[in-house]
Design goal:
Keywords: Signal. This protein has helices at residues 2-19, 91-102, 110-116, 126-136; strands at residues 21-30, 40-44, 50-55, 61-68, 71-78, 149-153, 157-158, 168-169, 174-177, 186-190. It is α+β, with helices and mostly antiparallel strands. It has a domain at 91-175: Type 1 dockerin domain.
């Protein structure tokens, strides 16, 4: 009888431990929704220690499974591919940025606005226009304060939709894991490319 009770307790404990794990998964796409393969995705714990890494497949998908629930995790896509700063950046992007700054054309999404913030100041200004022009003309070969590519959660939004210049809520790549979390998705933003 004692062996049966011990076995039942062990089975319940095993089921409880198993029930306390979950999965974080998502997809990385460009703004035109085309998947981005080969991107290294890191999973960090609460003190930024590396727990796991995955590489996006041909559909841009990544997944981390068997994660302990009740813990805080951060998902960090990292560009392990060399992307030219000039790739996708043209005079048309400078024109679009100027129209946004002048209030002639509102940014279609927070992601277009973020792509124009090439000096990483948190806002789109005429300095960003100057830096894009310098890149196009070959005076500079990079944006000094910005990587060529950024990754933003797909749930990013304008803080005040009626005033895009009030800033962007970039979305949080950190979560307290309670249950399976599918669709923890990111956009790959090519800096300076406002016309993806």
């Amino acid at each position: 009888m004692k062996n049966v009770i011990t076995l039942v307790v062990l089975c319940l404990c095993s089921a409880t431990v198993y029930a306390q794990t979950a999965t974080i998964s998502g997809q990385i796409t460009r703004l035109n929704d085309s998947p981005v393969s080969g991107i290294l995705v890191h999973l960090l714990n609460w003190n930024e220690g590396l727990i796991a890494a995955d590489t996006t497949d041909t559909q841009g998908a990544y997944a981390f499974s068997d994660l302990t629930t009740g813990q805080e995790y951060t998902v960090v896509p990292q560009d392990n591919q060399e992307v030219s700063y000039l790739q996708g950046v043209s005079t048309l992007d400078v024109v679009i940025a100027a129209r946004i700054i002048l209030g002639i054309q509102p940014p279609e999404t927070p992601f277009v606005y973020a792509a124009g913030d090439v000096n990483n100041s948190g806002s789109l200004t005429t300095l960003d226009l100057v830096l894009m022009r310098r890149l196009i003309l070959g005076i500079d070969n990079s944006f000094q304060n910005s990587p060529s590519v950024r990754y933003l959660r797909t749930n990013a939004s304008f803080i005040n939709p009626d005033s895009p210049f009030s800033g962007i809520n970039y979305g949080n790549s950190t979560l307290l894991l309670d249950t399976d979390t599918p669709a923890f998705d990111f956009y790959q933003i090519k800096m300076g490319n406002l016309n993806p």
